[in-house]
Design a protein that fits this description.
By secondary structure, the chain is mostly helical. The chain has three helices and no strands.
C-alpha cells in the first residue's frame, strides 16, 4: 500500500535530513490519517484518489497565483 511506502519514505527523509521532502510526505500522511478518521477504507484505489485530489488542489492554487 502507498501508506506503508509513505511511512518508509518519511523515515528515510528523517534519516537523510531532507526537510522539503519530509514536509511533503507529512502533508500526504496527514491526508491519509484524516481519511481514516472519516471512515474511509485506505486501499490503494482510495489512496490514489487522495493523491490525485491533492495534486489537483495544488494545480488550482498555481493557476490562481499566475
Amino acid at each position: 500500500m502507498i501508506n506503508n511506502k509513505i511511512d518508509e519514505m518519511i523515515a528515510s527523509a528523517l534519516k537523510n535530513r531532507e526537510t522539503d521532502l519530509l514536509n511533503v510526505l507529512k502533508l500526504i500522511k496527514t491526508e491519509f490519517v484524516n481519511a481514516m478518521h472519516n471512515k474511509v477504507e485506505l486501499n490503494e484505489a482510495n489512496e490514489v484518489k487522495i493523491l490525485l485530489k491533492m495534486a489537483s488542489q495544488r494545480e488550482d492554487s498555481i493557476q490562481q497565483y499566475i
